Every structure is written in structure tokens, then in C-alpha cells.
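Researcher: Next sequence.
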Amino acid sequence: MIEKTALVVSAHSADFVWRAGGAIALHAARGWKMTVVCLSYGERGESAKLWRQPGMTLDRVKVEREKEARAAAEALGVADIQFWDLGDYPIDLTQDAFYRLVDLYRAIHPAFVLTHSKEDIYNHDHPAVTDFAQHARITAQAHGHNPQQKVLGAPPVFLFEPHQPEQCNWKPDVLLDITPVWDKKRAAIECMAGQEHLWEYYTRVALQRGAQAARNSDKKITYGEGYQAVFPHVVESLA
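Model: Next structure:
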């Protein structure tokens, strides 16, 4: 039996939880091996609560952020979570990191990829990571790159929801029902103690996307996640 794999390229160590936790938990529950790459800990720009603690240091913030993300990943059923520590505000997407991601594509051959929106005027690390992830995908498809390896096919790429979608020109064209795994996503959300102010916000987002998904289907859906597809869907039926 061929192992089903998927890749989530997350700029910071909490992004995969807020934006794709439902998709991760849903596929993990179905036996998929979900790999999450956290390129940064989010140690500068997304750890305000930690920095308010007396005597806080950069290294301590990173330790706490990794601890939170690992607990969240466990709650979601992530098979492999990696922390690449590429800095934060700004993230430093080095050439070595680029080829490391290319190698990862070739190693796991994901059936689909999840990453950030193409635009985000509030956090330039996010679109930089999207470009990085898609450029690595293209290189992993190139027959002349490490020709002794099996080249990557054409996994679809889905862009998860930014914090303020209207300001980022992001519009969902895929609505995913995450109702069966909402408890797992909420548990993962509550692992992110450093950003407790976002717990209810992303619960409201899930309810809103769930309502939209129900409206656009004949299914009873409470919680959802929205995605924007990068490439056309190739199907054998329109039904």
C-alpha cells in the first residue's frame, strides 16, 4: 500500500495550527502522514505575551514556542514536525534552506501542499514563504536537478487563510468540512498559550467558513477551513 503524504510549509510555529489545523487533523485521522515545516519560531513578531515576562530572552522564547507547537502537532496527529529556525521579522530564506526544502519534496512526494497567501500586507514573512515553497516545488519537478532522484509530480497547492483576508486579496475557492475533527483543532489552538488572544478569533473563523460550506453544499457543516487553489483542478467528472 502506497503511503499518502502531505506537506505544510508554515512560516511561523503557530501558523499551521490557526490556518490548517483542521486539514491536518482530518487527513491524519484517515491515515495520511502529515509533515509540517515551521521555518521560523515566530520569536520576534508573534510572541508578545512571552516577551512581557520578566527576564525573557530570545532563546527562551524559541524553546517555549517549540514546546507549544509540538504539543499542537501531537493533538492534530502530525507525523513529522520540523523547526528550521530561519529567523523572524524578517525570516531569512537562505539558499541552503531552499535546497533543503527541495530535498524534502523529493523525499516525501506530497500529494498536496498547504502554505500561505500570496499577499499579506501585515506580515511580509508569509508571502515570502509562499514564493519560497512554490519555487522549491518547481525545482523539485526539474529533471536536471539531482537527476538520480525521482522527480516530483504535480501536487496541488492550497493557500490557507491569512489573518485579514480582505486586505490580502485572498478569496477561498475550496471550503473544507473540519467538523469531525474540530475538537482536535481546538485542542491544538489551546496549546498556543503565547497567543491566547487568537483562540476565539480562529474559532469564529472556523464557524464562518463552516456556515459558508454548508450554504454551498447539501451537507450539514458546522466548522470549516477555507483555501485558495493555486492550480486548476484536474477532474474526471463535474458531478
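Model: The radius of gyration is 17 Å. The longest strand covers residues 5-10.
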